[in-house]
# Entry
Amino acid sequence: MTDPSETRSGEEPLFQLSPSERRHQEAILLEEARHRVERCLRCPLGKTRNKSVFGEGNLWGKLLFVGEGPGADEDEQGMPFVGRAGQLLTQILQAAGIRREDVYITNVVKCRPPGNRVPTFEEMMACDEYLQTQIALGRPSLLVLLGNTPTKWILKTTEGISKLRGRWFSWKGMSVLPMFHPSYLLRYPSSTEGSPKHLTWLDIQEVKRKWDEVRGTDLCSEGEGQLS
Ligand code: SF4
# Structure
């Protein structure tokens, strides 16, 4: 996305947006994208959705979580990660000292795939412009990919989440960390050492450490300190 105040090198800018003016413009563009999604029929999921699920939180908090797509609860409420898996994600964030409202949460596709199936390549392709808009406007430093679908989509890999989770990758100037999707943790609730839940606890603490680093603050003592 082109910043209207940007010029080719060597030219004087016609005008310079202040940080607050820039944020204001970005917020307007974000709302425009949200309205486009609400009306979008670019792929078949638009015909079967109840409500589109654009995203929620602070897009400018430097930390963006990307899941696969809305489920039944999200489709009903129009908000991301509000079902059982979403509640677990909130707990995981809280345990690490990350307030959900301080980060942004969205999905690769903005409408629910029927029966919670994995979105097709064509559906993800059709919806990608919205995710890319969110990323371009928010310019997050850190991207956390929840589960196989966003990991494969963003990193263009065929490797599974079990191999990739917990490792930082570089993508378009951002640090990207794949993590298990919370719905996977609901299926494997054990928190013994080496279990998906235990590994997720390690991963989210790593995310928090890096988030503090990019924000230039040390808020490590804020968390509740455990993931039960
Ligand atoms: S999933 Fe994305 S591309 Fe498909 S209809 Fe919904 S908003 Fe449009």
About this structure: The CA atoms of residues 33 and 129 lie 9 Å apart.
